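Appendix B. Raw example, untouched.
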Amino acid sequence: MQTCQTKQPMIERPKDPVGPPLNDVGFTDHIYVQAAAIFQNGHVEKPADQKLVDYGRKGNLWMPEERDEESCLLAYELAFNSLKYQDLLESVITSCTFICYSVPEDLMSLVVVMLFDFQDRKFVNRRRLKGEKLPDVITVEACLFRYKTKLAASLARIRIKFNLLNIECVLPEIVKERQKMARSLLLYAWVNTQKTSLEDVKDALTREGFSEAGSVQQLQGQAFCRDAHCEDLLVFSPRHKERLSGTELVKDCKLVIQEKSCSLPVSAVRSVLDRDRGVLVTGCFSALTVAHTAAAAASRSGNVLVCEGSGARRKELRAVLSKMACSRNVEIIPSNFMDLNPMGVELEGVSVILMMPQCSLSAVSNPVDFIVRENRGTAPHCTLCSPGTLSSYSDLVPVQTVT
């Protein structure tokens, strides 16, 4: 066990949450339940002789529907913070054996995520928002509050034993360095040329107080620059994300914040797509990537075909594309790629196939943000909520065993 001698900041929460301050009310019931389902599908399975908590079968927890992107982001943040400290939280829980006897196995994931939030709020009971009455959350919250003195004492003993100023100190130094590095990585946004032009976006940014720099090395103050690899991509300092997100450019979908790794394939398509020809998109993609591909194809007077076998996903794609004014040259094929007839009429005119494999997240600056904004956690054709995929995030932030 590593010890921590210098003061570390408390674990950061997402900024600007919906509703009252989180330190007063915690999260909503639906966020707790969604975070618990994510945690249960992604927690580390241990050998029987090392298992402290039994979470029941994966996939047993009910996953509530997403209410909005912000709520989904908060749920993933809570789940992944709980995954980072799984061993520590399990040690605290098992020190109070009555909890394990009082709560069914299938609700132990809910116990873990609510305990993480409970300790983050200094074991102060939250004010329940009006209209929240999810029975499972009420049961677990009452149990944690009943034993809060024992839980707080157990956590205090662990911190004293290992000389921890706060629970973040239990993480290995390499993990803290990765988290620090992620916060300093550049912010990317592509220009939606179906709604505006690059020059108009640059003029609008200038009116917002930004200035154009020649390269990323010159991004000082409120500056932006063009990306060296993608012609419609702009680069910003990460500290401007909140301000940029509040501009009309982003709200009107004229400028779209997205990982550069999602823009590189679109740039490659633009470079090889013949005029008046089509591109077929298949694999693990988001509506934002389809919209970007549509904008790129439109610059070559081309069209985009999208393979999507799920009716719910087709409905979602149409809604996003319509909002972004990128639906004019997009046709959604209600079929999986492997079921297409290579000689079928729907493939006539296609000169490029863009196949998007499932991302390992190993090169993504903010995995949580990427999962939510790319719909990788809830898309029916994706398995990011499966244990194997979520473990890729755990590899970035491994848990330090507490004994």
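End of appendix B.
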